[in-house]
Amino acid sequence: MNAMRQQSDSAEPLRHDIRLLGRLLGTVIEECEGKRVFDTIETLRRTAVKFRREGNDADGKLLEQRVKRLQDSDPNSVARAFSYFLHLANIADDRDQNRRQRARAIADDAPARGSLREAVQTLGRHGVGVARIRRLLADACVMPVLTAHPTEVQRKSTLDVHREIAAGLTQREGPLTPEELADLDASLLGRVATLWQTRMLRYTRLTVADEIENALSYYRSTFLQVIPRLYGDLSRLLNRESAKPFAAPPPPLEPFLRMGSWIGGDRDGNPNVDAGTLERALLRQATVLFEHYLQEVHALGAELSITTLLIAVDAELLALAEASGDDSPHRRDEPYRRALVGVYARLAATAQRLTGQDLARRSTVAAPPYDTPQELSADLATIAASLAAHHGSPIGKLRLAGLQQAVEVFGFHLATVDLRQSSDVHERALAELFSRAGVQHAGKPLDYLALDEDERVALLRAELSQARPLASPWIAYSEDTTRELAVLRAAAAGRARYGKQAVRQTIVSHTETLSDLLEVMVLQKEAGLIAPAGQDIPPEDGLMVVPLFETIPDLQRGADIMAAWLDLPEIRQRVKQAQNGAQEVMLGYSDSNKDGGFLTSNWSLYQAERALVDVFSARHVRLRLFHGRGGSVGRGGGSSFDAILAQPPGTVAGQIRLTEQGEVIQSKYKDAEVGRWHLELLVAATLESSLAARAEATSAEDAHMAHHGPAMSFMSDTAQRTYRGLVYDTPGFADYFFAATPISEIAGLNIGSRPASRKKGQRIEDLRAIPWGFSWAQCRLMLTGWYGMGSAIEAYLETGAPDAPRSRRGRLAQLREMARDWPAFRTLLSNMEMVLAKSDLAIAARYAQLVQQRGLRERIFGAISAEHGRTLAMLKLLTQRELLADNPTLQASLRERFAYIDPLNYLQIELIRRHRAAQKNPRAEIDKRVQRAIHLTINGIAAGLRNSG
């Protein structure tokens, strides 16, 4: 009882915040829409809550009937009301997470799991000291990479208001007078009213320029503030002496945690991305960064009012002040301020040169621009050294230390922009270049596309050693070839302008052969990014060519391709000299899941990682895995902390990049405090996975693979047959999918610049993995996160695999041991459990009614329903408990949320039925209000489920 009471007490602040925001929303709705609309919404809410709590089918039918009676503008009002309530509940959830994390952080005796403090303590217990952590960080790379994949359905306008509401909730936690509390609540009411009166949907499709600006808003609100703070916290943990009041702050840490981006450089399947968008992305990133630097230096100038009448300063600082050009008599005794006048002027001149804009907020003296970030760092270090030498260390820790670290991390570029393109585009571009250049092969004009793989590899390697170019300024090439060369040339220009960290990687989607990688090398040579093979290679020369292995067959042959790649002498030389001994490999979660299903995707990824570790270890090359994770579990979602710790030993080793996509960016990073925690989780998990008891972990992993690998392979094969049997081999499945999910309506929602499908038509093969998973989430099936698992576990229990325990009881004991002791399998089941907890077969059955053909509907939904029941039963058998019984907080939160998501599902089904009926009737006029209401429900359901894209 005490535990239950304690849990109830800990949940009370969250319930209080949700009740407060819900009450404010109700007040706004009644005022703006009138009592009739308010009563309609409230009646639906009460019916849905009663239905969820009591499970009475009569309440479900009543909810359905009341939704069907909604007419005119009422569906829009209802959709907006429930959607905004879920938005507000998310804000309250995030604040509650912050509250809990702060409470754990205050408890010195029990640091929060996933915190930096906990990671350093854990490593200490394993005999890993500070010196070893520092050695790892010196060459480490931890990089979240923001992408513009289209599952973020919220507008920036609403996200900005969300931040203000979150700030208001935080202020309410402090001791307040009645007047202050009244003022805060009035402010919150105004913010909620602003939300209600702000258009929730975009009327036009996002452009790449919009996506760039949206991403940059997270730098302003989160990354530019939080990342230097995180470095500072870690530095203090690794430098105990710095905790003394007047101890000199340690120098900035080597930049191991940086930010990456695909926005503006990811051309794969997006015709709207080209050289111009890459140039814009780099320009806008630099602009935001220099605005931040100038603001911080301006603030420093106000803060560092230290006078030489009271305290001494270093000669180097005096020289910097004298060189500043500031001759104001008011600052004659304030050398720090004078020095910063010069720093500010040089920064403003640098911004003018790099961005072509005057970003200075005040007039400046004439000064030369900084040529490199290192020059700016040197000036800041001069100021810091003087402060430290003359009792000013506490002053330097206020703002200067963070700015110093920011310059180390962000340079003059802010974030690394990756290039990405499909291998077949590279192939066609090179084929045209060879043909138009008149290259001969075996005495005849070269037909590159007709060559076999060995011939291609030989030709490409020979071309890499050639000094003469293939492309000619006198020849007009096709649009695709011209675009590819222009992008690479823009990358070269961007690196020269903003620094080599501005563009570091070029990712090859659909890598299937060694020649796919060599083709990009030749194209880089044509664009002037790299010199011909055989010449001296400077550090960070050219772009690292990163293969992306996506489908199940691609993952299976990935290790062989990388072995062949690293065995080429010219590539080994480039890896050693230009890439600091590291080579990156990207693994795709989305397409492998869409290709082979949940279990097979995860198992194929796991085996590919182990095989890659062996290949790289044998060649003494550092492996950096780039995980193409999405928001939903079917696309690699789930806890990033647990996912990193569950990686095979040797696959992290201080090197990890991972994509942050769609609504996950908003969920993790819209708020500085929440964003700080998620970044800390990434760093802490990387440290633990890289350093904690590697020998023991490797030994345990080898034992798991030896004892349980055959069982996983057996289940993977069964799960893949089950999944592909439904999705690709069942006649009419595509018709069912397009009818029983809102995929067609999602395609019309203006949530991204990338098309939902690679080709026109209704083929599952052509549909992108992101809208594929997003559609299943909308109808509450989330098929991509569990389908096939039930059959796989059941088949293993019934028949087993070679070398499996002979009895069913023995095989069940083995699977339970795997679920308990093997991190990879435990994390797999945990993610699947969360998906199943969010699924609702009764609601999915109502979506199935949208399929007109009864036989098709019953056949396919029957198969889905049977597998769903089988998977639930098998999961409960392995875990020996009900869903989420070990996480009652999440269980209670989901139960409350479902009462607000359910009406949106019911409404979406009804509106889709009306809309599609009107589309089929040539005499009917399409009601734009119905279309908007459908899109509003999509927004709300996505907000309620949170990780659906």
Automatic annotation (TrEMBL):
Coiled coil, from the record: none
Pfam families registered for this protein in UniProt: PEPcase (PF00311)
Cofactor dependence: Mg(2+)
Name the record gives this protein: Phosphoenolpyruvate carboxylase
Active site positions, chain numbering: 149, 594
Subunit architecture: Homotetramer.
The organism's place on the tree of life at top rank: Bacteria
Family: Belongs to the PEPCase type 1 family.
NCBIfam families, A to Z: PRK00009.1
Species, as recorded: Achromobacter veterisilvae
Segments traversing the membrane: none
EC number(s) per entry: 4.1.1.31
Annotated keywords: Carbon dioxide fixation, Lyase, Magnesium
Gene that encodes it: ppc
Primary role: Forms oxaloacetate, a four-carbon dicarboxylic acid source for the tricarboxylic acid cycle.
Gene Ontology molecular functions: phosphoenolpyruvate carboxylase activity
Reactions it catalyzes: oxaloacetate + phosphate = phosphoenolpyruvate + hydrogencarbonate
